């Protein structure tokens, strides 16, 4: 009998495996995993113009942002363009969400920046490679659900801290101060305070003008759409291109001053490495100063961040895809596979770690992109920029970029959420605050880890203290104490349940106790055992009944103690039971 | 207004603090924290004889067990007696549970053994001191509830592994093998296999005879009570004293052989350090071989175990107190304070870590102990043993102790539970198995940590996937889709809820959707926000209503989006709502 059963189980397993393999190798799966196979044959000519317009708009932001984020990471400016180039191309093939745009982002750049400052650019490229592997494997293993354990208060605390830290690191460039920009919030603030006397007027004027222009241009676009009349359409386009506009204006001013007056009143980005990135194997060993680092030593240097960066990257991508996918329906697995591959391939082309970019995705969306082909235009413009425009980029003032970054950070903070969290009960607000403070003052990676762990622990605490209601019911046929188990019970609630039953029995004055398990759907061994043993203990002195335990739960209970079958009763309400109960025990 | 409120809050806080302080300094609290103040004045002369009888019975087991557990820990035998001496005395003053007996236990001894084998006895004493501090602080901070996160399957897997490991470590002494006894299960088994040829006949005969005698003596006591007639009373007493009896018989045989035939056919315990332990400050620095260890280095050597041993100690004490306290009502805080102080004071008298002992507590209970004064008799007998009997202990055969320990371990395993766990669903069984295997093959401390973490993660997974029921209800007035939220929702379930609502809307064919929140009691910001944003997204295409959300939950939801107030409806059943609903949207 057992052998036969085992045989049947084996056969079923074989069949399942075969079905699973068949399912993995269909055209459908191929289309799902390499989406370009799906959308390219269906491509229509009318999509072309829309994709091109969207691509141009995105590129006008991708170039200044890419340079700015390379600056945040402490990398040479061209790295920011490299990062959008290869990754953008790979996403065209593997991306499942047509408006998502990948590239360097502020948070990931600032987390990478620490290694670049302390070691070298090679560490940023290796981080991209390792993050890619991590994200790809998480995607293959379908582990995207893990990011569900990062709640909105934790995300909010983390992004606020990141925004503040990034903004603080730009204070040096904003005012043209001496000293370092710092990889930590406190470092940057300290540098600002100690070097405030070295502030330069023209830097401050240019960066403040950049901020004001950006805010005005953003406002100018309000209520305008791509499909409006010419004036509104122009306003819409200027508003969307505001990042490029302020940088170009800064460049032109710097160029004119240089050519006409032969002076450089503000600091410029300077020479940008021209041409395409060097393609080759990512740096699995490197030399910093006099010291050679092999692969193992490089990974040791990266430490805990090498796991946090990919998680942040997954989080950003999935959040963005969800926000812009039609009806919020996304294939998280495919998004992770795509972003993983973008990082892996990117690292072969000197890319820093990349992920989905909120700003550029939103731009892509409002520009009316139709297919991932829009990304191709973006990549082509980046290609032109890298090969022909780097000499023009020489004139980008650092203060313009600082103004650009600080404005972006100002808009990244979700101010409304603070109020809502405050009103929604202290727990979520405190969680946000703790995550933010640890992120700011200890480190971004520690902040988010602390937030996740604290919230999981507080969740476990709630689970360990499920609602149990005790009521004394007065009926004509006699009183009963009713202990209602309102929620599922887990092992960590076993002791709580035990105490509650003991307390109820202590105040029951010998009237019958009914334990109402109508809402119970799941209990584990520990709870069942505890429940049965306490009922057995109290059986001699109290009259206890277990009401409306489902057949399955009853079976579990009787597995522990077969002598208590008579305790299980079924009724629409405790009142019904009083009819059959003795008045006193 | 706000200032006034703040003032009121401050006053309330002050009042609370004062009340709290007053509460802390009453005679009641003193009685609770130093229970001897409570029970000693009420002591009656008729308690005396019962306490003395119980004390003698417990001592007859405490002495052979103490020596055996010192042997398990690799310590000189007298350390096992030292451990029961000071700790026993301290428990008389601070213990809240009159039948709990503290002293060395098998599991804690085997966990301590590793340090003794690799370093020296000083590490065992320092472990006692640190564990004491840890337990005491946990008690003061009321953190006893943390042990509720160790479920029965995990405890079962852990104790089974400990029992197997301890039994395996005794195989060497059982058969008189060469080699080492090993601090790990595999080491012990390997030693057994490689040295099986060196087994000695007389050792094996004596240890097997010990096991058989113990089992027979245990059976002899079945159904006999202290209050029975003389014959049954004698059977009862012999059965309870079986540990002492088998050791004494072994001693007598060894003594006779030595005196008459001048041979030692079996290995003996040998010289036992006579007299009381040296009282003094615990070893905060020590010398092992040529190396001096300072306090920090010693703590580094102890590592993760120095946190696991006290947790195990707390677990054993609370579990035992619960099992033997009247009606299971215990003061876990006081028990932790007491066991903490026992370890701290004990470490000033060369004690290894101690905790509540299940065997001896059960013995104490069935011997009819009335007050913690019973422990005093036990301590006096240990005192006599240490000062006068150590020369007799010379003749204790190691094989007798091995038989004693292996028998105790055989009875420590809860065989019934395996079957019950198996029948209760695979999850609990697998958890037990994983805990057991990691405990056996990696280390006891890693096993229990892995068990706790795995179970907490699986619990979080369940919490992230709460039951959501989707039903299509057909009423005369029109059909509705009802999505019932059966359980509380936490942030990690937000995505699950979102998907479920999306799926429901996809299959709803434009009939109204009712989200039934009757059972909801608690949601957090993440869930609320997700729910509100999806309802807003679907508002244009679907008719969605939120039924029976409590006033509080509704307030939280409207905090996020005030425009959705009309979505909240209240009704006894979805049917009522259909009356007012449009047929199609």
From TrEMBL, chains A, B:
Keywords: Membrane, Transmembrane, Transmembrane helix. The keyword Transmembrane helix applies. The keyword Phosphoprotein does not apply. The chain crosses the membrane at residues 52-75, 81-102, 123-147, 201-217, 237-257, 302-324, 375-396, 401-418, 430-463. GO terms for cellular component: membrane. It comes from the Eukaryota. It is a multi-pass membrane protein. It is found in: Membrane. GO terms for biological process: transmembrane transport. Residues 48-435 form the SLC26A/SulP transporter domain. This is SLC26A/SulP transporter domain-containing protein. It comes from Spodoptera littoralis (Egyptian cotton leafworm).
């Amino acid at each position: 009998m057992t052998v036969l059963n085992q045989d049947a189980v084996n056969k079923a397993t074989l069949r399942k495996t075969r079905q699973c393999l068949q399912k993995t190798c269909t055209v459908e799966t191929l289309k799902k995993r390499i989406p370009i196979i799906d959308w390219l044959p269906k491509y229509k000519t009318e999509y072309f113009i829309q994709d091109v317009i969207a691509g141009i708009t995105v590129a006008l932001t991708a170039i200044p942002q890419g340079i700015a984020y390379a600056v945040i990471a402490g990398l040479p400016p061209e790295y920011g363009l490299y990062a959008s180039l290869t990754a953008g191309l790979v996403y065209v093939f593997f991306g499942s969400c047509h408006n998502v745009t990948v590239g360097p982002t502020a948070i990931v750049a600032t987390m990478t920046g620490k290694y670049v400052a302390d070691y070298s650019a090679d560490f940023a490229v290796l981080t991209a490679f390792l993050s890619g592997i991590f994200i790809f494997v998480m995607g293959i293993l379908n582990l995207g659900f893990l990011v569900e354990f990062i709640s909105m208060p934790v995300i909010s605390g983390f992004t606020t801290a990141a925004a503040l830290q990034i903004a603080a690191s730009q204070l040096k460039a904003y005012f043209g101060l001496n000293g370092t920009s710092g990889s930590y919030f406190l470092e940057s603030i300290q540098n600002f305070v100690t070097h405030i006397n070295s502030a330069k007027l023209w830097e401050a004027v240019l960066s403040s003008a950049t901020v004001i222009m950006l805010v005005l241009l953003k406002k100018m676009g309000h209520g305008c759409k791509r499909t409006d009349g010419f004036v509104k359409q122009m306003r819409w386009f200027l508003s969307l291109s505001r990042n490029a506009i302020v940088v170009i204006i800064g460049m032109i001013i710097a160029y004119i001053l240089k050519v006409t007056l032969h002076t450089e009143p503000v600091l410029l980005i300077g020479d940008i490495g021209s041409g395409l990135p060097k393609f080759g194997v990512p740096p699995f060993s490197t030399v910093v100063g006099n010291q050679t680092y092999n692969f193992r030593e490089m990974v040791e240097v990266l430490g805990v961040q090498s796991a946090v960066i990919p998680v942040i990257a997954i989080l950003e991508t999935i959040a963005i895809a969800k926000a812009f996918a039609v009806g919020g329906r996304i294939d998280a697995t495919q998004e992770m596979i795509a972003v993983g591959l973008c990082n892996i391939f990117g690292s072969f082309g000197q890319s820093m770690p990349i992920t989905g970019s909120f700003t550029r995705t939103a731009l892509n969306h409002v520009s009316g992109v139709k297919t991932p082909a829009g990304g191709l235009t973006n990549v082509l413009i980046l290609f032109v920029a890298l090969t022909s425009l780097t000499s023009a980029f020489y004139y980008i003032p650092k203060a313009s970029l600082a103004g650009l970054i600080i404005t972006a950070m100002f808009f990244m903070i979700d101010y409304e959420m603070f109020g809502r969290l405050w009103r929604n009960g202290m727990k979520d607000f405190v969680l946000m605050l703790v995550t933010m403070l640890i992120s700011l003052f200890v480190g971004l990676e520690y902040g988010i880890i602390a937030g996740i762990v604290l919230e999981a622990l507080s969740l476990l605490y709630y689970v360990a203290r499920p609602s149990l209601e005790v009521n004394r019911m007065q009926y004509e046929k006699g009183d009963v104490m009713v202990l209602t188990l309102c929620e599922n019970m887990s092992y960590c609630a076993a002791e709580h349940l035990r105490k509650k039953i003991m307390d109820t029995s202590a105040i029951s004055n010998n009237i019958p106790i009914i334990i109402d398990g109508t809402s119970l759907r799941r209990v584990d061994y520990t709870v069942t055992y505890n429940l049965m043993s306490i009922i057995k203990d109290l059986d001699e002195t109290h009259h206890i009944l277990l009401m409306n335990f489902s057949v399955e739960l009853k079976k579990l209970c009787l597995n522990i103690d077969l002598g208590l079958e008579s305790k299980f009763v079924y009724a629409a309400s405790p009142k019904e039971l009083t009819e059959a109960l003795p008045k006193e025990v």
